């Protein structure tokens, strides 16, 4: 009987003996899909997790699973092991634009002008290396997957260059209704075809924002993405001009103003005094859905947040970027948490953020949530979920083959190793350890494993 003839169902219940296993053990493991494990271990074979549990239990289970002369190598880590972190919003190609991110600006438009000045001086030929430097920074910070927006095609391979997971979203911006149909659509097809031919692991589409695209592209792009089974990622509710101007009640109102009018753009809708938010505008166009996640979501009122939940749209919060680009306020983090919106964390790019370490944003989210009056004791747990499973969900990668953002049998073996003090003597000590990870974990990653391969190791073992 050859391997091909084995029934997959039988094989799942009676796996072939393992011949080569790496055991990552640590005083604390955070699987995310299960409770924190003390004196834990993760057994990895090939690109996948085989077992996770207490070290004692995993070794016991392996004794049953392993072939007689199989190789078992243990790598013990003295800190915390988590799933590889997920950066839910970035533009890796702008890594070399850190000067822009270090400037100070009087308004969002002022930041845009600063951005454009430097973008033009860099130009063609510089984006590939810049994007790859960014991907390397992420790997060193324990990030193993990202939602990466690609504006210039040469930057598209950055995630793949480091073996990272996630989606490279082709950005579409600056099209009016007339030139979109005559020129824009053709350009899009050209670029997507090129990205497909260089064999990127996953490609998506990013319609930029309601202030750089008129209605036509915002109707067509989601349709095209959905026909191709691609995901969508949009900058939305980032700037003050995207805020609604109505009492935040159910938007049946805005449905009525669409019966007799096809609005050419969000601007036109605003000029007509309709007062709909940018989220309500895109919702009316059918652009939102569970295959979409948005970046920022700063100007989202109660009705906007309800629409996002109703459509299954997640938000990538980028609190540091919002301050640098002067979005005018912080995201309503307390409300998002209390109401139960799907959330993840993004750094945005170095052109609007001091680092590509999502734990820097996690620390700021913690403080902002408390300042905004979020008092529940689950805050660190919620933020850990945002950094892992939440990000995976926003990328459509939280279930099924190749799932990420979690440590469990069969999941992709993406791991990060944080060098923080671990207290396990009491439940309070365990909570304190999680607290330290979320609030002071930035810069403490010492090793990164992607698909079972060690891609970064700063003398961790
Ligand atoms: Zn962005």
UniProtKB/TrEMBL annotation:
Record keywords: Hydrolase
SUPFAM superfamilies the record matches: Composite domain of metallo-dependent hydrolases, Metallo-dependent hydrolases
GO molecular function, one term: hydrolase activity, acting on carbon-nitrogen (but not peptide) bonds
Domain Amidohydrolase-related: 80-453
Domain of life of the native organism: Bacteria
UniProt protein name: Cytosine deaminase
């Amino acid at each position: 009987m050859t391997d091909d003839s084995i029934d997959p169902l039988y094989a799942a219940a009676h796996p072939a003996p393992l011949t080569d296993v790496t055991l990552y053990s640590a005083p604390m493991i955070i699987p995310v899909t299960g409770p924190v494990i003390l004196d834990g271990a993760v057994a990895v074979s090939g690109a996948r997790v085989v077992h996770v549990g207490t070290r004692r239990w995993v070794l016991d289970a392996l004794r049953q699973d392993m072939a007689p002369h199989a190789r078992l190598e243990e790598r013990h880590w003295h800190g915390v092991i988590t799933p590889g972190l997920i950066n839910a919003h970035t533009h890796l190609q702008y890594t070399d634009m850190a000067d822009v991110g270090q400037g100070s600006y009087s308004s969002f438009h002022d930041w845009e002008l600063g951005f454009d000045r430097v973008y033009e001086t860099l130009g063609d030929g510089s984006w590939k290396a810049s994007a790859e430097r960014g991907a390397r920074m992420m790997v060193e910070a324990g990030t193993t997957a990202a939602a990466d927006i690609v504006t210039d095609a040469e930057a598209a391979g950055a995630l793949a260059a480091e073996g990272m997971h996630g989606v490279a979203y082709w950005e579409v911006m600056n099209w009016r209704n007339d030139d979109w149909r005559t020129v824009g659509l053709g350009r899009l097809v050209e670029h997507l075809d090129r990205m497909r031919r260089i064999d990127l692991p996953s490609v998506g589409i990013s319609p930029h924002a309601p202030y750089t695209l008129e209605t036509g592209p915002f109707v067509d792009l989601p349709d095209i993405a959905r026909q191709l089974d691609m995901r969508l990622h949009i900058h939305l509710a980032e700037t003050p001009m995207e805020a609604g101007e109505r009492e935040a009640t159910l938007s049946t109102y805005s449905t009525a103003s669409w019966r007799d009018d096809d609005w050419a753009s969000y601007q036109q809708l605003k000029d007509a005094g309709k007062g709909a938010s940018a989220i309500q505008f895109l919702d009316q166009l059918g652009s939102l859905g569970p295959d979409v996640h948005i970046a920022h979501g700063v100007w989202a009122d109660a009705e906007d947040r309800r629409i996002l939940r109703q459509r299954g749209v997640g938000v990538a919060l980028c609190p540091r970027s919002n301050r640098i680009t002067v979005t005018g306020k912080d995201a309503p983090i307390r409300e998002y948490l209390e109401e139960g919106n799907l959330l993840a964390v993004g750094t945005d790019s170095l052109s609007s953020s001091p680092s590509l370490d999502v734990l820097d944003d996690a620390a700021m989210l913690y403080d902002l949530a408390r300042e905004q009056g979020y008092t529940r004791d689950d805050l660190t747990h919620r933020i850990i979920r945002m950094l892992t499973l939440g990000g995976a969900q926003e990328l459509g990668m939280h279930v099924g083959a190749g799932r990420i953002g979690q440590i469990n049998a069969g999941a992709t073996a993406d791991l990060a190793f944080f060098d923080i003090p671990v207290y396990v003597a009491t439940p309070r000590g365990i909570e304190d350890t999680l607290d330290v990870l979320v609030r002071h974990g930035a810069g403490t990653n010492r090793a990164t494993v992607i698909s079972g391969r060690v891609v970064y190791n700063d003398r961790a073992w």
